[in-house]
Design brief:
Number of strands of chain B: 2
Shape of chain B: elongated
Structural class of chain A: mainly alpha
CATH superfamily of the largest domain in chain A: Sodium/glucose cotransporter
Largest sheet of chain B: 2 strands, antiparallel
Distance between the termini of chain A: 61 Å
Number of helices of chain A: 25
Number of domains of chain B: 1
Radius of gyration of chain A: 24 Å
Low-confidence stretches of chain A: 34-42, 226-235
CATH topology of the largest domain in chain A: Sodium/glucose cotransporter
CATH architecture of the largest domain in chain A: Up-down Bundle
Order of helices and strands of chain B: HHEEH
Oligomer: heterodimer
Largest interface: A-B, 62 and 53 residues
Strand content of chain A: under 5%
Low-confidence stretches of chain B: none
Number of strands of chain A: 0
Helix content of chain A: over 70%
Mean pLDDT of chain A: 83
Number of helices of chain B: 3
Radius of gyration of chain B: 22 Å
CATH class of the largest domain in chain A: Mainly Alpha
Strand content of chain B: under 5%
Largest sheet of chain A: none
Chain lengths: 594, 106
Amino acid sequence: MDFSQINPWILALSGFTVVVTIWMGFRSAKTSKSASDFFVAGRSVSVGWNASAISGEYLSAASFMGIAGMVMSMGYDALWYPVCYACGYLFLLLFIAGPLRRFGAYTIPDFAEGRFDSPLFRRIAVCFVLFIGFFYTMPQMKGAGTTLSYILPGLPYWVGVVVVGAVITLNVAMGGMKGITLVQAVQYWIKMFAISVPIFVLLAVYGGYGKNLSLNQASGEPAPAAQVMVMESIDHARRALPEKAPKDEAWIAPFGPLTSKAAKAAGLSPQESRPLSLLYTYSLIIALVCGTAGLPHILVRFYTNPDGAAAKKTTMWVMILIGVFYVFPPVFGLLGRNFMPELYNATGSKGPDKVVLELPTLLGKNSVLGSVLSGITCAGAFAAFMSTFSGLLVSMTGAVAHDIYGRMLKPGATPKERMRMFKIAAVVVGGLATLLGTQVELLEINFMVGQAFAIAAASYFPLLFMSAWWRGMTMAGAATGMLGGGILALACVTLTSVGDVIAKTGQAAALKAGTVWAPDTITLFWKGHPLLRILSEQPAIWTVPTAILLMIIISKATREKIPTDARMKMLVLHAPESLGLKQEYIQEQQGAGH
Amino acid sequence: MSQPPPDENNFIHSEEFLRGLMKRQLRLSVSCASAFLLLLFGLPLLNYFAPELMARRIGGFTLSWLVLGVLFFPYVWIIARLFITRSMALEAAEVRLAAEGNKKLS
């Protein structure tokens, strides 16, 4: 590693963020004595703080770094990601948040058990917390590896992953970083500042959002008059694109490289590949919108409000806070395409995924302004993947320690034993997540998060939606649907991801050796079957309806097993909180000896 | 089974109340969702069937990019705000309905 290459500003700002985050986590941990404080702590907190905290937790490495990278490499189609990340929240608000809050289930496994009076179902639901969780931690680790190898040039990717993974795992195991409201709220504002301030500076120098887009020529347009000069000085001219980069027409238009990848690989003509691209687009939209509503760690945040009205207002503010954030990352991608196109030539952690970190250096590689702004974006990146990884680790470890160990293996465990189990579980889960993270350098951050959403969309979303609105659901129906859709989605995304890693590793090796890459069997299969590839890469369009259908069919077939107090349960889910039905329900449950 | 609920609450526990409740809530949620889904699912169709229209330049942006990259967000905020105000009004109406229903029965 070449120490002379390290930029002191970037190192200092990043280091500062890391230290402050860990310190704040530890300080808050000292005052929160048990796991239940995590839920109760925010009850008296205002809408503003809560909204900031939820938004902070929501914006992961995908939002901070991944979107910009994907917009740069794929163009228009990538815009669906930020829009759907934000819109999924609307879906949550419209159909799921109200009923679940009234019901009182903090987590999805809680809801699964309570709605169907089934501890077994709880355990099944817990498994998906782990599946979805791992797919969500891998992109955070890629973010970590990319950021660290940017700050410390020459550092191998996997070292960055291991260092960050170890630090956060230890932190969680020792009781810190429990997603405390204050910490998460501050994280949001760090990220918001980090994504917007550099953009304002860069746009002032390189021309506005619209102006930069106009430099990209759509099909059928004459070459833009200002193709070469944005401002008087030649320095600010748009740079030439390398061979590997997608051409303007494909980049700026819908149905571009992202959605037509499989069709292009199969050699289809543009006319033939358009319908397939449309299919891909719809499947992607369904995955992202339904997946948000099914993310395991989002729901608990609805309880950090004193009442239902405050919870709704908080959600409104969350949508504004994250919406405003999401306008900015695509601008990074756009400016990266216009002014830093050499990133197209690199792969993995040196490619477009690091555009957010590196773009500010356009203002001068060693200038103070450029370095400070770059340091700010690095700080934002740290805030993003550290907070998300620790949040995920806490929920996944909690699921293992509380649900699997505490209820299944050893229900009579003492608090001390539980604590010990939590620590061991944290190390195991964190270690596994880190290991997986080292394997994904060649996959795109945003893409991996989309996969996690696809699994949630086919498992948790149908469960929550159908259970909240249809009285006729039985446990068998819910379980079959959730398992059916979820496992199908999981199998598909694992298949495509593993196949992609193998293919990309092969390509990178061939490039290095200067030989021609011989496609492996999986790649050849996809080449011949572009439709199957699309349905496997983005399975939501068929797995979500499958899950819902299974739920309906099996529930009807087992209709004698509908919970006897189903009407009471539906009442609790939908009647206004002030009517006190939840309290009545709890009393009934206790009276009947549950 | 526990004690039967007191008389005042019989209306709340009635089938009529529950059905009305769920129908009204579902209707509100579905109508807000439809407004949102119309744009969400409609935009790819517009892109597919009217590419020249969607490629028209507005202030440097293509129309398609302007909608998806910027305008979608305020649209969603407006829907969210409408839903929140209406659902809070709906809840207040439901509480009133429950009280009236109880009076009628007792």
